């Protein structure tokens, strides 16, 4: 946090100097006359370095070289009437280029420090708050259950559930910030806690590779059984607080491998979500129809 605070202070000091540098010559001739186009370029560069992760990943020499090329390209197109070197223009060129270079470097340092804080918050403060493993960490157990189902000719079902945000201001599929991480992990912890109360000891839950999704593996559960389980899960009070969609697939009817079951469950998830949206739309249309009273 100290580095983040200091980088913000440095950038504020830099901007204060940048936009007041022409006042240095008070009482004398104005030796520094930075063009408005250069000011626009510097501000644009700072915003782009802060907002676009690609710039943050560049090493400093490459970043400086890139924006140096942009500066001289702009000089050639918009300020061709001003010489780059010669007399006072040499001093002006180095001043403009120097302010641009300092600005993008300070912006990159700030972007890196912000990214570091967000990563720390994600990896340490809220790491694995749900307490369940990811799919890749449970491959052996999944294969063992599938082998047992094949050998003893027993069904096995998987359920994919996906939470959706009702608040349009929260989007955890974009680059994470502190608020998104906190909200996403908190909601996930609530969902996992509530779902666990309805699962058997033989069932187990996994975290999907895609954020906001979970997978329930339910051995010895056929299609009617998994449908009943989904209905129980939907009835949980805490689950009603969020938009949660379910999709299921059963071994061996819908797939013989875990990957095929996942594909079928994903398809079922999408179909359920689309039908849910369609039913809501039909209800809205029905509510809007005039009622004729005879």
Topology:
Layout lengths: L1 H17 L17 H16 L1 H5 L2 H19 L9 H38 L13 H14 L3 E9 L13 H19 L7 E4 L5 E7 L3 H12 L8 E9 L6 H31 L6
Antiparallel strand pairs: 1-3, 1-4, 2-3
CATH H level, superfamily name of the largest domain? Reverse transcriptase/Diguanylate cyclase domain
CATH architectural name of the largest domain: 2-Layer Sandwich
Main pleated sheet: 4 strands, antiparallel
Quickly give the structural class: alpha+beta
Tell me the span between the first and last alpha carbons.
72 Å
The low-confidence runs, each spanning 5 or more residues with pLDDT under 50, are 166-176, 283-294
Rg over CA atoms, rounded to whole Å, is 29 Å
Walk me through the structure.
- The chain is an alpha+beta fold.
- The protein has two domains: 2-125, no CATH class; 135-285, Reverse transcriptase/Diguanylate cyclase domain (Alpha-Beta Plaits), CATH 3.30.70.270.
- It contains nine helices and four strands; from the N terminus they run H-H-H-H-H-H-E-H-E-E-H-E-H.
- The longest helix is centred in the middle third of the chain and has 38 residues, at 88-125.
- It is elongated.
């Amino acid at each position: 946090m100290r580095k983040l605070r200091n980088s913000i202070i440095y950038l504020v000091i830099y901007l204060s100097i940048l936009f007041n540098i022409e006042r240095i010559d008070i009482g004398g001739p104005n030796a520094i006359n930075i063009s408005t186009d250069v000011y626009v370029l510097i501000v644009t560069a700072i915003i782009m370095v802060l907002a676009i992760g690609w710039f943050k990943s560049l090493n400093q020499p490459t970043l400086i070289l890139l924006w140096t090329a942009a500066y001289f390209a702009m000089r050639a197109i918009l300020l061709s009437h001003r010489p780059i070197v010669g007399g006072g223009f040499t001093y002006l060129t180095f001043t403009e280029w120097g302010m641009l270079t300092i600005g993008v470097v300070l912006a990159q340092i700030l972007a890196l420090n912000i990214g570091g804080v967000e990563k720390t918050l994600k990896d340490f403060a809220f790491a694995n708050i749900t307490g369940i493993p990811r799919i890749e960490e449970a491959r052996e157990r999944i294969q063992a259950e599938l082998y047992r189902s094949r050998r003893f000719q027993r069904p096995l079902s998987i359920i994919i559930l996906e939470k959706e945000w009702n608040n349009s201001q929260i989007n955890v599929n974009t680059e994470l910030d502190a608020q998104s991480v906190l909200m996403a992990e908190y909601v996930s912890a609530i969902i996992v806690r509530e779902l666990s109360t309805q699962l058997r000891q033989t069932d187990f839950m996994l975290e999907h590779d895609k954020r906001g999704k979970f997978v329930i593996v339910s051995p010895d559960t056929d299609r009617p059984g998994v449908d009943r389980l989904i209905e129980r899960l939907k009835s949980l009070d805490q689950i009603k607080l969020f938009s949660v969609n379910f999709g299921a697939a059963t071994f061996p009817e819908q797939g013989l491998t875990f990957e095929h079951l996942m594909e079928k469950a994903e398809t079922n998830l999408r179909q359920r979500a689309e039908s849910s949206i369609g039913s809501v739309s039909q209800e809205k249309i029905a509510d809007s129809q005039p009622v004729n009273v005879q």
